[in-house]
């Protein structure tokens, strides 16, 4: 008898838990969508903003393309190459190791970091990694090398 009673009671709790976890996963997906929306709107720098930031020398621009792509296509002047697969590890490195590997001072969590790639997909992933590691001022240049080269190396009027 006792066993049956416990079983029923347990079953009831389990049902409640399932309900609670269903609600939580609903909230998580809302949170996920909001995060994507917020990073898309507030953490994206335009070509002109990037130019100004580079001129002010107040940012570290990290190009997350593979090294061969940079050698083949070119790079935004002043950018540092950290391929996407290395970003998480690099941002957690000891500053001395970072300096040795990338020949740059490791950015602090409050520094302005901007990620770029070819067309904004990998730079967004790098941005998400950086934000999850506490680099809350990080942004990305969604236009990437594609847009940069089109403004810098063609007769096209420059965008914003
Ligand atoms: O560089 S990219 O991932 O946007 S194609």
What does this structure look like?
With 160 residues, the protein is of the alpha/beta class. It has a domain at 60-155: Rhodanese-like domain (Oxidized Rhodanese, domain 1), CATH 3.40.250.10. Helices cover 59% and strands 9% of the residues. A four-stranded parallel β-sheet has the order 2-1-3-4. α6 (121-132) links the parallel β3 and β4 (139-140). α4 (84-91) runs parallel beside α6. The longest helix has 41 residues, at 2-42. The protein is globular and about 45 Å long. Mean pLDDT is 82; it is low at 1-18. The structure holds thiosulfate.
Number of helices, where a helix is a run of at least 4 consecutive DSSP H or I residues = 7
Q: From the coordinates shown, what is the CATH architecture of one domain? A: 3-Layer(aba) Sandwich
Helix content: 55-70%
Uncertain residue segments: 1-18
Write the CATH fold name of one domain.
Answer: Oxidized Rhodanese, domain 1
Biggest sheet, spatial arrangement of strands? 2-1-3-4
Ligand catalogue: thiosulfate
Q: What is Rg? A: 22 Å
Q: Note the beta-strand portion.
A: 5-15%
- Please tell me the overall pLDDT: 82
Got a strand count?
4
Q: Determine the CATH superfamily of one domain.
A: Rhodanese-like domain
The level-1 CATH class of one domain: Alpha Beta
How far do the termini sit from each other? Answer: 75 Å
Major sheet size, sense and barrel closure: 4 strands, parallel
Tell me the overall shape: globular
> What is the string of helix and strand elements?
HHEHEHHEHEH
Structural class category: alpha/beta
Keywords: Transferase
Protein name: Sulfurtransferase
Organism: Phyllostomus discolor
GO molecular function: thiosulfate-cyanide sulfurtransferase activity
């Amino acid at each position: 008898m006792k066993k049956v009673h416990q079983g029923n009671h347990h079953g009831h709790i389990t049902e409640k838990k399932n309900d609670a976890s269903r609600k939580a996963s609903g909230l998580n997906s809302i949170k996920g969508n909001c995060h994507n929306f917020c990073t898309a709107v507030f953490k994206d720098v335009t070509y002109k903003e990037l130019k100004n930031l580079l001129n002010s020398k107040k940012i570290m621009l990290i190009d997350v393309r593979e090294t061969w792509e940079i050698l083949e296509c070119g790079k935004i002047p002043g950018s540092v190459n950290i391929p996407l697969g290395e970003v998480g590890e690099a941002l957690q490195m000891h500053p001395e190791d970072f300096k040795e590997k990338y020949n740059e001072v490791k950015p602090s969590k409050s520094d302005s970091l901007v990620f770029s790639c070819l067309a904004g997909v990998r730079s967004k992933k790098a941005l998400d990694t950086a934000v999850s590691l506490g680099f809350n001022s990080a942004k990305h240049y969604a236009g990437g090398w594609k847009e940069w080269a089109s403004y810098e190396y063609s007769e096209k009027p420059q965008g914003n």
